[in-house]
Amino acid sequence: MTQMALVIDLNVCVGCHACVTSCKEWNTSGEAGSLADHRPYDADPSGTFFNRVQTFEAGEFPLADTIHFPKSCLHCEDPPCVPVCPTGASYKRKEDGLVLVDYDRCIGCKYCSWACPYGAREIDEERKEMTKCTLCADRIYNEALPERDRKPACVLACPTSARLFGDIHDPESVVSKAIRERGGYQLMPEWGTRPSNHYLPRQKVTSCGSGACSCKTSDGDEAASVETQAERGELHLASIATRV
To answer: I need a labelling partner for 84 at 20 to 30 A (CA). Which of 137, 223, 232, 237 fits?
Structure first.
């Protein structure tokens, strides 16, 4: 069975929030919108987002590190949010494994958000409906778009190509190869939800002497060039434009 998912490379995420803003823009103007914002320019703003980036410090000086951790719905293979929904509004789609919400059935009871161990669902306070990441289901199958653009908005917007998209059940897909070759892991697997989205663990990087270059990993492997990444389908046009 097909299971579409994201693989997020924590080595190259810079916390720019391009994924957050592009997600908000696309979904507000798409099938999910409009997503509420309250007091967006005040001291205490709040709003509905499908994707957020959490930033925190790890370690102690002089070995401290800043980690940017993007998080959205993980499209679990055994999603606990689905069976608790009293109206059947939350469901897992068979053809691609996406976990979605039928807004016409949602009554805003929040049972699904309480059941989700990842805090990935947000109630839209304006519409009183539960919202979440759809992996841009209204975009990835849109034949009116060029094939290269039939990816989630967050994937296309990422300037460092930290986000990969594909079928994790296809052993030859970009995401499956990344998980297999780089030790991709699931978030909180102990919950037994089998989240589809995976993360690529951070690697220790050594410099080339100048302090500005990091072309070798701790294993001594040469970092892939822009051209190599483009050939693999790991680099997107928007990213190339920012690198060359």
So the answer is: 137
Q: Structure pTM?
A: 0.81
Domains in the chain, start-ordered, CATH in brackets? Answer: 4-202 (3.30.70.20), 203-244 (no CATH)
Q: What angle do CA 30, 153, 94 make, to 5 degrees?
A: 75
**86: DSSP letter:** S
Instruction: Round to whole Å and give the CA distance between 170 and 3.
Output: 8
Which strand (E) or helix (H) includes residue 91? strand 90-92
Which secondary-structure segment (H or E) carries 181? helix 174-182
Token digits of residue 74: 């993980």
Which residue shows structure tokens 């000086």?
A: 61
Tokens standing for residue 116? 């989700």
Share of the chain residues as helix, strand and coil, in percent rounded to the nearest 5: 20, 20, 60
**Residue (of 8, 13, 18) closest to 154 by Cα position:** 18
pLDDT of the chain along its 244 residues, tens only?
899 999 999 999 999 999 999 999 999 987 777 888 888 888 888 889 999 999 999 888 888 889 999 999 999 999 999 999 999 999 999 999 999 999 999 999 999 999 999 999 999 988 999 999 999 999 999 999 999 999 999 999 999 999 999 999 999 999 999 999 999 999 999 999 999 999 999 886 554 544 444 454 444 454 455 455 555 555 554 443 433 3
Instruction: Provide the 8-state DSSP code for 214.
Output: -
Nearest-angstrom CA–CA distance, 143 and 120: 29
Query: Is the CB of residue 163 less than 8 Å from the CB of residue 151?
Result: no
